[in-house]
Amino acid sequence: MTGAAGHISDMIARIRMNESAIRRKRYFKEARAEYIRAAKQKNLDYHRATPEQLEAIRELVIQNRRKDQISFFIAMGLSVFLSIFVIWGLWAWFKSAVNY
Fold first, then answer.
1. Is this structure's pTM higher than 0.90?
2. What CA–CA distance (Å, rounded) separates 52 from 25?
3. What percent of the residues of the chain are helix, what percent strand, and what percent coil, each to the nearest 5?
């Protein structure tokens, strides 16, 4: 009965590898698109850019990512602050409602 166990485990391993390869391809496609967008902002052709131009594109991408990161952290900080404020308000309201 266990003669096919090796074949089945091999099939499962191949399916997992194919799924992970698809995920990796999507990631690099998004990163590449980000570099192409940055090149368009500088009015450059990404495929024919000189090393200096590629470095400028890279710096622009890094700056854009840094801005996105900062705005994300600000939004998360505000969300946490507002959540704590709402929870505190609900707790105070519930505490005063129970005392009556």
1. no
2. 27
3. 90, 0, 10
